């Protein structure tokens, strides 16, 4: 009995394991026996569950892949279905409850399932959905090749675990958990009638479950608040309501075991109206009447017996009246007050565990009574418990009613006691992993309500058992709870273990990003603890993550960003994605510096001009020649070059300092771009330009010195204003043959044609010798220089010398003052 309570005598020594001895076995889970090492096959990996140092994972060796699993025979399916039912309780068997007023619903469900249709049975809690599913299962035995499969959907929000449960029920695949691809391939071949009780899943998750098993017909038992399936799922709806008054009275008489009195019949009619005919309320009402009969019967027996001298018992018998209508609608408090003390202690444990009642074999250790296992049958007969899969939990509304009267006041203490008991039990060598998986909900509830020390201990012992039983949803939940509890308790070694197990679990489920994060955290913690064995195991698992990422990258090659081709004609740079394959070599392309849209593009060659892309212009595409993914940048504007070398100084400055570049006309694409000129040629051109500039400056200085003292002011005459900035005219002289030959006129040499946007600025009253260069000047000169071709002869008289010609000889004088140009002709006087 001490072993049952989780206690060991001080003289007992552990029979195996690596944990040190301690007074209690709950503190040393490995003290009961050697560590259980289980080998599993998870997808393409071989998993070894090691409770001491952490699980080890490696790829399957060639030739060790498991064969295709075979389906179970009818006898094996029947044995598994019997094991899935709730356990047989000790004590006398409870009488079977009749299924009343459900014949029409049962026939309709069987007919729809026989046609291969899926049905959603909707009814409130306590309406008898589980009893109706049992009746339908008996009628659907021969409808499908794989028989009838009973599953529990309580607490299931995703279809993954349900698919794995369906796979393990139909196929003989012990210690094998297939990968997702193999799982989907196997479940598509299952043809069965699947009964899902207490399902909490709907919407897209339910659609995914039904798409994965197209050959199965589902009967889904849900409550009205469960999310409805999508419109495309084509699921039939069957609503399950309450019973009529006659059926309620019949159910009440069957529960009491005798005919009802008139007073009880009237009370039952009022209860039927208040509870809307829910069968659960009349099961509880029958328990209230049985307890009342028992109390009144004991009172009658006491009246017949003579009380003893020392007995303190009232001499007047007290008649127990019928319960009130409020007590009949919420009977949990009254029912709990009339059960045994062990049953009330079990109710306190169930309230502390969120409504989950432990297996009846654990109640003697949790309650402290050797006969506490009979409390489950007592509570089930009262209607305070309801079966859920292979276990029992509090019926709908019972937990809330009990917590209101104080049954939840001792919840922390009860949860801590349950956690320490389950820590000892799950770590015992005689407990098989499948038995631990059957108690998963109670273990997780105890883990959630325990303190951090008890939670770390329970998670450390229960996690390997859940992994070995292939109940991986519970394995992940207990690992996450254990990691959080270890962080709060400061247990670094245990925290590293939990993170390592989470990484291995994510790797088995092909979640590589999560696996990398968890394994790197575990390796860091174990490195701080100098745990060499744990670090090596973590690095081996991390190497498998790297291999998986590499294989995934090879399966989906990276994209290559290539320069645009003809799409660049619209004036925008386009990025083209091509697979990373080796491309043929192309003609050599000159290197172009990458630029942004706001910066101008300058070429390395001195004769290259930069202009924006004009419509129709083409840019030579850059073809990569390597097999690796590269990104090449191309300029937004095409590069054009001058075929001839500059011949004038203005062209040299225009090339070096472009002011307003002209748009390049569309030109036909050339097969290859000429190589840039040699650096020596560019240097010679710049030197020649600098020399020409020096000669011009020197001539300007000499002209200014000569014209400042010798030049005469122009003769007054009619002034003509014109708009053009520069006006040029030639001097025409007509000789009549009588007049003497005229003197050579003073005129300006022919000026170079200025480009659009360029303007000359000569000094008023003087004839410019040449057109100024287009080199930008920061400030205009006050007196621009003029270079006369032939200076006029000077005389003592400062007045101008007239020219004797038959026709007037106009002399063009260009004056730039703002925007006005004046031309003064010289006439013959």
List the SSEs and their pairings.
Elements: E1 38-42, E2 45-49, E3 56-59, H1 74-83, H2 103-114, E4 119-122, H3 129-139, E5 148-152, H4 159-170, E6 176-177, H5 180-187, E7 193-197, H6 204-212, E8 217-222, E9 236-239, H7 245-256, H8 262-275, H9 279-304, H10 325-329, H11 332-337, H12 341-352, E10 356-357, H13 363-367, H14 375-381, E11 385-388, E12 391-394, H15 398-404, H16 411-426, H17 433-438, H18 440-449, H19 452-468, H20 472-489, H21 492-508, H22 512-528, H23 532-555, E13 559-562, E14 576-579, E15 608-610, E16 639-641, H24 649-656, H25 679-710, E17 720-722, E18 821-823
Parallel strand pairs: 1-6, 4-8, 4-9, 5-7, 7-8
Antiparallel strand pairs: 1-2, 2-3, 10-12, 11-12, 13-14, 15-16, 17-18
Strand order of the largest sheet: 5-7-8-4-9
Helicity, as a percent range: 25-40%
Q: What is the 3D shape?
A: elongated
State the major sheet.
5 strands, parallel
| Cα-based radius of gyration, to the nearest Å | 51 Å
Number of separate helices: 25
Beta-sheet strand percentage? 5-15%
Rounded mean pLDDT score: 73
Pairing-aware structural class of the strands and helices? alpha/beta
Question: What is the CA-CA span between the terminal residues?
Answer: 150 Å
Low-confidence stretches: 1-33, 559-641, 709-829
Task: Say how many strands there are.
Answer: 18
């Amino acid at each position: 009995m001490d072993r049952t309570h989780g206690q060991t005598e001080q003289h007992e020594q552990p029979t195996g394991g690596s944990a040190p001895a301690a007074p209690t076995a709950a503190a040393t889970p490995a003290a009961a026996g050697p560590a259980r090492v289980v080998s599993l096959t998870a997808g393409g990996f071989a998993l070894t569950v090691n409770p001491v140092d952490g699980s080890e994972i490696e790829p399957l060796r060639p030739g060790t892949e498991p064969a295709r699993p075979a389906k179970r025979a009818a006898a094996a399916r029947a044995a598994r279905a019997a094991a899935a039912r709730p356990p047989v309780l000790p004590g006398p068997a409870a009488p079977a409850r009749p299924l009343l007023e459900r014949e029409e619903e049962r026939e309709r469900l069987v007919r729809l399932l026989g046609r291969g249709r899926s049905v959603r049975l909707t009814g409130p809690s306590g309406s008898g959905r589980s009893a109706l599913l049992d009746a339908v299962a008996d009628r659907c035995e021969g409808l499908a090749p794989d028989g009838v499969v009973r599953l529990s959907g309580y607490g299931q929000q995703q279809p993954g675990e349900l698919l794995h449960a369906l796979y393990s029920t139909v196929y003989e695949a012990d210690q094998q958990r297939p990968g997702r691809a193999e799982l989907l391939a196997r479940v598509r071949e299952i043809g069965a009638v699947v009964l899902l009780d207490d399902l909490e899943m709907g919407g897209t998750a339910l659609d995914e479950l039904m798409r994965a098993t197209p050959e199965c017909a589902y009967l889904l038992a849900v409550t009205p608040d469960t999310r409805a399936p999508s419109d495309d799922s084509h699921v039939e709806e069957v609503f399950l309501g309450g019973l009529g008054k006659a059926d309620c009275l019949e159910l009440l008489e069957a529960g009491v075991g005798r005919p009802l009195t008139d007073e009880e019949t009237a009370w039952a009619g009022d209860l039927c109206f208040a509870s809307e005919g829910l069968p659960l309320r009349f099961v509880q009402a029958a328990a209230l009447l049985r307890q009342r009969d028992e109390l009144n019967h004991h009172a009658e027996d006491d009246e017949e017996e003579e009380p003893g001298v020392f007995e303190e018992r009232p001499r007047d018998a007290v008649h127990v009246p019928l319960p009130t209508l409020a007590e009949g609608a919420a009977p949990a408090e009254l029912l709990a007050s009339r059960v045994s003390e062990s049953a009330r202690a079990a109710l306190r444990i169930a309230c502390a565990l969120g409504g989950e009642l432990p297996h009846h074999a654990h109640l003697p250790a949790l309650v402290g009574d050797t006969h506490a296992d009979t409390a489950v049958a007592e509570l089930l007969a009262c209607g305070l418990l309801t079966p859920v899969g292979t276990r029992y939990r509090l019926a709908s509304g019972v937990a809330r009613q009990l917590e209101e009267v104080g049954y939840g006041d001792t919840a922390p203490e009860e949860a801590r006691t349950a956690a320490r008991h389950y820590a000892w039990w799950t770590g015992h060598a005689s407990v098989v992993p499948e038995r631990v998986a059957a108690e998963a909900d109670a273990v997780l509830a105890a883990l959630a309500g325990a303190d951090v020390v008890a939670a770390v201990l329970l998670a450390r012992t229960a996690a390997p058992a859940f992994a070995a039983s292939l109940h991986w949803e519970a394995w992940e939940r207990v690992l996450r709870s254990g990691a959080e509890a270890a962080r709060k308790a400061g247990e670094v070694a245990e925290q590293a273990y939990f993170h390592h197990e989470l990484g291995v679990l994510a790797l088995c489920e092909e979640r590589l990003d999560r696996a990398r994060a968890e394994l790197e955290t575990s390796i860091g913690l174990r490195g701080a603890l100098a745990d060499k064995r744990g670090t090596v195991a973590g690095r081996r698992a991390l190497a498998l993550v790297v291999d998986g990422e590499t294989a995934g990258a090879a399966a989906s090659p990276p994209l290559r960003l290539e320069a645009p081709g003809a799409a660049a004609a619209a004036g925008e740079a386009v990025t083209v994605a091509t697979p990373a394959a080796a491309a043929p070599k192309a003609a050599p392309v000159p290197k172009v510096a990458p630029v942004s849209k706001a910066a101008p593009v300058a070429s390395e060659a001195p004769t290259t001009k930069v202009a924006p892309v004009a419509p129709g212009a083409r840019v030579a595409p850059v073809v990569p020649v390597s097999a690796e993914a590269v990104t090449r940048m191309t300029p937004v504007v095409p590069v054009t070059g001058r075929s001839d070398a500059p011949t004038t100084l203005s062209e040299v400055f225009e090339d070096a300092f472009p002011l307003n570049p002209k748009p390049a006309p569309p030109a036909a694409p050339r097969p290859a771009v000429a190589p840039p000129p040699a650096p020596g040629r560019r240097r010679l051109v710049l030197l020649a330009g600098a020399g020409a500039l020096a000669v011009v400056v020197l001539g300007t200085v000499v002209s200014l010195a000569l014209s400042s003292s010798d030049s005469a002011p122009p003769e007054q005459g009619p002034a003509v204003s014109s708009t053009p900035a520069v006006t040029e005219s030639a001097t025409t002289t007509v000789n009549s043959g009588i007049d003497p030959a005229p003197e050579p006129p003073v005129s300006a040499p022919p000026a170079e044609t200025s480009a659009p946007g360029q303007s000359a600025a000569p000094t008023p009253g003087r004839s410019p010798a040449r057109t100024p260069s287009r080199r930008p000047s920061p400030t205009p000169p006050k007196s621009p220089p003029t270079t006369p071709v032939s200076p006029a002869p000077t005389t003592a008289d400062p007045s101008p010398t007239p020219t004797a010609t038959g026709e007037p000889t106009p002399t063009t004088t260009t004056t730039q003052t703002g925007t006005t140009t004046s031309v003064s002709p010289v006439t013959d006087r």
